[in-house]
């Protein structure tokens, strides 16, 4: 493709959804990714032992948006799956989010739902306003549960104390007075039945889309200078870090295959808030429902250096992002969309929704002279 209408940088959800929408609107699209595969961080593949794994950590699809669910359903069938997580606290494995079972098992009690609520009312430390993640946790469960389940995990995951992170981080985890032990409460919770990569392949299978992997934006910037740009990589890198680097948190993934063990742990993920250098271990067979004599697991070790995986939500980072965003707004013919480009701690479904909105806008604001 010599001169596509659009050059899209990044073949994750943001770039791929935009590519599909623009292609269906009659535009030609060159979609590139510097990695050697599509799917972004949601990429999955069969490991050398025949088990479908997520190289960039566990991805579980969940949403309350019927629109997003129906959109992705065009490219995949689904396997019903509700994720469950246990946290290792002392010698016990306890449900997280904290629920009635967690409190009863931890403290050797047998409280009813109403009694759990009364207990939490007694131990919580009301905070107003709620600004930080520490405020969120202390306000809902008080200091003991905070120290046992949140403070250590957060320090490991972010390299920061709960009090240094915006409220939205810990607010992702609810507190329950019932026995609901699902990690997510959303109305749609599924896994793509043939995996994420297969879903992306179908999404990108369109005559107007050309995909080029192992290709960095810098390599083709000049070649496609005439195309409109959709950029889904880190926004600070686009502007050559002119205001300094935006902090992103990275991870090292330590994958392991256990050939003679059919099951490693009782649920998809076990969190380690207080022990070890890793935050959690995920066993993929729980997520995919695969049958296999062995099993494959991944440990996540948070680190500062490496591929950017998480924007770090705190006021000073938000302020720096705003400076880059102001630069972005001055660019013509460039759209910034996605978790790295918008510096937002977005889940997959939120990225799909954001990308659909961005593509809609691009399609509606046809450049002058476009007769289509
Ligand atoms: P990405 O998937 O990061 O895609 C951006 C792409 O741009 C990358 O492939 C990158 O290689 C490419 N790129 C960047 N710069 C360049 C360049 N200069 N040239 C060429 N290509 C470039 N969400 C959920 O809903 N459920 C989960 O269970 C879940 N678990 C997660 C677990 C982990 C460990 C992580 C890190 C994230 C998780 N997420 C989960 C979030 C999910 O991964 C993101 O919401 C989603 O993948 C973001 O899509 P994106 O397209 O914005 O970014
Ligand atoms: N968290 C925690 N203990 C847990 C689980 C989560 O302290 O057992 C906090 C921690 O700060 C974490 C945040 O809640 O980064 C969000 O957790 P989530 O599981 O949503 O993180 P992700 O899957 O995005 O890494």
Automatic annotation (TrEMBL):
PANTHER family: UDP-GALACTOPYRANOSE MUTASE. Its EC number is 5.4.99.9. This is UDP-galactopyranose mutase. Belongs to the UDP-galactopyranose/dTDP-fucopyranose mutase family. Residues 148-345 form the UDP-galactopyranose mutase C-terminal domain. The keyword Isomerase applies. It is an enzyme of class 5 (isomerase). Its cofactor is FAD. InterPro entries: UDP-GALP_mutase, UDP-GalPyranose_mutase_C. GO terms for molecular function: UDP-galactopyranose mutase activity. Keywords: FAD, Flavoprotein, Isomerase. SUPFAM superfamilies: FAD-linked reductases, C-terminal domain, Nucleotide-binding domain. The keyword Flavoprotein applies.
């Amino acid at each position: 493709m010599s001169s596509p209408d659009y050059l899209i940088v990044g073949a994750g959800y943001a770039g791929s959804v935009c590519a599909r929408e623009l292609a269906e609107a009659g535009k030609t699209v060159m979609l590139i990714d510097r990695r050697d595969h599509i799917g972004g961080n949601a990429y999955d593949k069969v490991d050398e032992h025949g088990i479908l794994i997520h190289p960039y950590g566990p991805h579980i699809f969940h949403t309350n948006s019927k629109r997003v669910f129906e959109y992705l359903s065009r490219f995949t069938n689904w396997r019903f799956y509700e994720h469950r997580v246990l946290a290792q606290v002392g010698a016990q494995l306890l449900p997280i989010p904290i629920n009635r079972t967690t409190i009863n098992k931890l403290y050797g009690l047998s409280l009813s739902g109403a009694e759990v609520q009364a207990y939490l009312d007694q131990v919580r430390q009301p905070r107003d306003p709620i600004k930080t993640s520490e405020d969120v946790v202390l306000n809902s469960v008080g200091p003991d549960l905070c120290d046992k389940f949140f403070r250590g995990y957060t320090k490991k995951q972010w390299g920061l104390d709960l009090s240094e992170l915006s409220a939205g981080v810990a607010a992702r985890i609810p507190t329950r007075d019932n026995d609901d032990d699902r990690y997510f409460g959303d109305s749609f919770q599924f896994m793509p039945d043939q995996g994420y990569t297969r879903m992306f392949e179908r999404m990108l299978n369109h005559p107007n889309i050309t995909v080029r992997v192992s290709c960095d934006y810098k390599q083709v910037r000049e070649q496609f200078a005439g195309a409109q740009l959709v950029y889904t990589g880190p926004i600070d890198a686009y502007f050559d870090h002119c205001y300094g680097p935006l902090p992103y948190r990275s991870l090292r993934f330590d994958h392991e295959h256990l050939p003679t063990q059919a099951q490693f742990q009782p649920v998809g993920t076990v969190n380690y808030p207080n022990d070890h250098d890793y935050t959690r271990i995920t066993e993929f067979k729980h997520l995919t429902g695969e049958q296999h004599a062995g099993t494959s697991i991944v440990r996540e070790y948070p680190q500062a250096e490496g591929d950017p995986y998480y924007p770090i939500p705190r006021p000073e980072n938000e302020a720096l992002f705003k400076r880059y965003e102001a630069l972005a707004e001055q660019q013509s013919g460039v759209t910034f969309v996605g978790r790295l480009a918008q510096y937002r701690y977005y889940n997959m479904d939120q990225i799909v929704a954001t990308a659909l909105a961005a593509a809609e806008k691009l399609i509606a604001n046809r450049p002058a002279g476009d007769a289509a």
